[in-house]
Automatic annotation (TrEMBL), chains A, B:
One of its GO terms (biological process) is glycolytic process. This is 2,3-bisphosphoglycerate-independent phosphoglycerate mutase. Pfam families: Metalloenzyme (PF01676), PhosphMutase (PF10143). It comes from Methanobrevibacter curvatus. The gene is apgM_2. It comes from the Archaea. Residues 1-402 form the Metalloenzyme domain. Keywords: Glycolysis, Isomerase. It is an enzyme of class 5 (isomerase). HAMAP family: ApgM_A (MF_01402_A).
Amino acid sequence: MKGIVFIMDGLGDRPLKELNNQTPLQAANTPNLDKMAKKGINGIMDSIKPGIRPGSDTAHISILGYDPNIVYTGRGPFEACGVGIDIFPGDIAFRCNFSTVNDEFIVTDRRAGRIRDNTSSIISKLNEMKIEEYEDIEIVFKESTGHRAVLVLRGEGLSDKVSDADPKIEGKPPKIVVAKDDSAEAKKTADLLNKIVKKSYELIKNHPINLNRVEKNEPPANIIIPRGAGAVPDVEPLNSKYSLNSACIAETGLIMGIARFAGMEIIEVDGATGGVDTNLDNIVDTIMDNVKNSDYDFFLVNIDGADEAGHDGNYKEKLEFIEKVDDIVVSKLLELKDTIIILTADHSTPISVMDHSADPVPIMINGSDIRVDGVNKFNEIDATKGGLLRIRGSDVMDIILDLMGKSPKFGA
Amino acid sequence: MKGIVFIMDGLGDRPLKELNNQTPLQAANTPNLDKMAKKGINGIMDSIKPGIRPGSDTAHISILGYDPNIVYTGRGPFEACGVGIDIFPGDIAFRCNFSTVNDEFIVTDRRAGRIRDNTSSIISKLNEMKIEEYEDIEIVFKESTGHRAVLVLRGEGLSDKVSDADPKIEGKPPKIVVAKDDSAEAKKTADLLNKIVKKSYELIKNHPINLNRVEKNEPPANIIIPRGAGAVPDVEPLNSKYSLNSACIAETGLIMGIARFAGMEIIEVDGATGGVDTNLDNIVDTIMDNVKNSDYDFFLVNIDGADEAGHDGNYKEKLEFIEKVDDIVVSKLLELKDTIIILTADHSTPISVMDHSADPVPIMINGSDIRVDGVNKFNEIDATKGGLLRIRGSDVMDIILDLMGKSPKFGA
C-alpha cells in the first residue's frame, strides 16, 4: 500500500461575486475531483489551527507531522535546505541578499540591480572566507535565485538570537547586528556576522563579475547582507519517524526545502515552473511512474499554480488552473490502485485577499475501505458535510499511515 | 474593518419538555438571529474544551485568547480588576467579605447583614492599615457590591498558595490562614493575612458606620475575611497581542474585570443591569455609536440576561429575553457594514440545570466574503450543521483577526 499527500497550494478560497457567490473551486468544472469526493471521505482542515494564517512552509511542516511552533525557528534553515545545503542541528542559517554599497559603505541597491547571473562564481570567492577570531566556525555560502543567497554558520557556541543586517531601505549602511538576548552565544554570533558583512565587501568588491558590472553601469553585487536567522532544529527524519521510504515531487524551492529538511528524497520534474503555466503532463507522469515503479512508498506532491493565481487576484486563472489539474492530473490519480490519496491544500489564498488566509481547506481521502460519506463535490462548502468533519494538518500523517496499514498501535 | 465578539451569556440550553423538546433559543421567535445565521457561517463552540463546564470568567478568558489554565490563578485578580484596582503581575489578590464577629471573635454573620451602603467609608479606614513586620507590603482594599470587597497585597516574597480565612459557616472564628506549600513566600503571606484579619477588626469595630448599625440592631461590618487568593499573572494586553484598539461593553463587574485584566477600555451603558430587565435600547445604541464613530476597532460585548434566567430556571424569562435581544439588538447589528460579527455564548446555562453546563454553544460569523453554509436558523441544533463545525473558544480571536485582515502570517 502506497500513500500520496497531494497538496494544491493555496487552493482554498472565499465566495466571489464574480462567480455567483461561489469559490473558484466550486465554480470550476472538476469531474475528476468530484469523482474522488464521491468515492472518498471528505472534510475540512486547518493546517495549523483554526484562525492561524499559515505560510506554505509552516503548513507543510505541520502536515508532515512536525510542530511548526517548535521546528520553525526562522526562514534561514528552510532556505538553506531549499538551495541544497546539507544542514545539521545547531547550524545557524540566514537568508542573504547580494547588495551594492558605495565607497562610504552606504547601501545603494539592496538587490544589486537584481543580478541574475554568475552569482555562483561570487559565492565561490565568499566561501574562501575565514574570520580571524572565529577560525573554528565553518562559514558556508550558497547562491539561490537572482540576488538571493544563503549563509550557514557551523560550530560551537552560536545562537540564532541575533538581529538582521539588512537595513530594509537604501541610503543607509548595513545594520550593525546585535544580540537579541544576553547569552554569550548571541553576542558571539552578532560579532561574527558583523565581521562577515565587512569581510564580504573586501572579498568580492573587486571580483571580475563586479568589475564587469561596474563597467556596464550595473550595480555590483559587492556585499552580502544576512537576515532571518534560524537555528537548525534537531528533527527526526520523516522516514525513520514513520518507517517510510518517502519522496517529494514539488515545484518550488521552498517546498523542496521543507522536504529536504524532513530528509525526503526530491524527484525533480522537467518543466515544473510553480506557475499556472507549469507542465502538468510531466508532473503527473512523474507521479504515476514513481508510484507504480519506484521503491518509494510515500509521496508529498505540491502543485503551486492555484496559489500563484490567488496571490495575483486572478480568479479566472485560478479556476482554469484547477480545471487543468483536474483534467490532466486528477484523472490519472483515479487510476491508481493500492494507494491511499489525501488530496488537500496547505492553506487558502483567496482571490479577494491576494494572500494566504486562515480559512480551512477542503480535504478528501481516497483508497480501499474508506468510509464513504455521501459528499459528491470537492469544494470548501460541500467538504464541511463530510465524514472527516474538521481536522488539523498535524493529523494527516497519522491518518494516512493508519489507512496504509503502517501505523504502530499505541497500547495493547 | 471592525470586529465584534457578541456574547449572550449563558445562552445555550438543553431541550425542555415544556417547549416541546426544544431549547429556549429554538423555541424563541428570532427572525434577526436567523437572518444572521442564513447570511453567515455557523457552528458550535466549546469555550474551553468539550466537557469542561466553564465559568463566565474562564470562558471569556479563553475566548479572548488567553489560556485559563495558566492565567486563571483564582478569582481574586479578576474581582480586583472588576472593582477597578490597578493590579500588576505578582500582586496577590483576594475576594473578601465584610462579616460580623462578636466579642469572642466568633463569626455571627458572614455577610454583615448583607450591608449595602457606606462600605467605601469603612474601606477608607482599612486602607490606613500597616502591619508592623511587613511594612514593605502595600495593602489595598476596595469595596465591591454589598458586603463584598477586594484585597490586594503588593510587594516582594508573596504567594497565592494560601488557604481561605472564610470559615464558610457561622458560629466559628475566622479560619487561621495556612500556607498550601512549603515555600517561605506562602508562609509569609499566610502570617500576613492572619494579622490583616485581626487588624481589620481593631481598625473598624468602632467605625461610626458600625456603631450606627449596632445601634439600629444591624450586624456591624466589623471584620474583613479574605478568600480565593490568586497571583496576578503577567499577560500581554489584548491590544498589543493582536494589534487592536479594543473596548468592552458589558453589564457585570465580572466581565468588565476580565476586560480590564486584558487591558481593554470599558464603555459603560446607562441602565445596564445584567438582568432580563436591562436597558437593551441603551446597549445597542452604545454598540452602534461606538462601532460607527469611535476609533475602537474591536469590541467584546456581553449581555447577561439569558444567563440570569437560566440560573433562575425560568424558561419563559429566558425565551422572552432572547426574543427581546433579537428584536432590539440583533436587528440593528444586521445594519452594520465593514464589520465582522461573531455572535455566540460563553457557556450554556440550561434551565434544567440552573447552573452552567459544558454543552457547547452555537456560534455564527457574519461579514463580507464569509463562506455561507446554508444553515438558516440560529440555535444549538441547527448550528451543528454549519460550516464551522466544532471550534473552541481559543480559536475565536484568531478567526476574527483573520477575517478582519489583521492576522500576521506564520511563515512564508
